[in-house]
Amino acid sequence: MTTRAHWARVVSNQVHYALTSRVVEHESAFVAKANDVALRVWSPLAGGYLRGKYTQGGSGGTGRRTTLNFPPIDPAKADPVVRGLRDIAAELNASPAQVALAWILERREVCSVIAGAPTPDQLTANLDARQIALTQRRPNV
User: Fold this and answer.
1) Which of 23, 65, 103, 138 has the greatest number of C-beta atoms within 10 Å?
2) What is the span of the domain harbouring residue 114?
3) SS3 122
4) Does 136 map to a domain?
5) pLDDT digits over 45-74, tens only?
6) Is the peptide bond before 71 cis (omega within 30 degrees of 0)?
């Protein structure tokens, strides 16, 4: 489909969107909804931060985030989000990452997510997030 100027219509936009980075809700998501433009979300787990391993009570360990804060995270704001994800995940017999992915996938304007998975087990767990319904209690942090 083209406009009168013979330009192609924008149908999707790739944005960083996660529970720790919700800036797109101020403008991009609104414009996307209003114009039927899909959002393709990159790093919905905030570079693995929403898995919970980098916060208190997490497994720590290795990973890119131990040496590179990207996407940028403010732990003072993000750690309470992770604690909330852990609580909800425990209620749903899921992982914090699955709850965070389920939250993103419930957004009408989100058409797909780009999430890295360093192991086959993490890939399977990420895919299983599609089965989680957060209609009773959504993480609204």
Assistant:
1) 103
2) 12-131
3) helix
4) no
5) 999 999 988 887 666 667 777 788 889 999
6) yes
* Token couple for 14: 């790739």
Give residue-wise pLDDT tens across range 102-137: 999 999 889 999 998 889 999 999 999 999 998 655
Answer whether residue 140 is part of any domain. Answer: no
| CA gap 39, 112 in Å, rounded | 7
Query: Residues of 55-75 as b/e, b for ≥16 C-beta within 10 angstroms?
Result: beeeeeeeeebeeeeebebee
**Domains contained in the chain, number:** 1
CATH of the domain at 58: 3.20.20.100
- 18 contacts 70 by C-beta, under 8 angstroms: no
Sign of CA dihedral 83, 84, 89, 92: positive
Residue 114 and residue 123: Cα distance in Å, rounded?
11
CB count in 10 Å sphere of residue 85: 25
Residue 137 resides in a domain: no
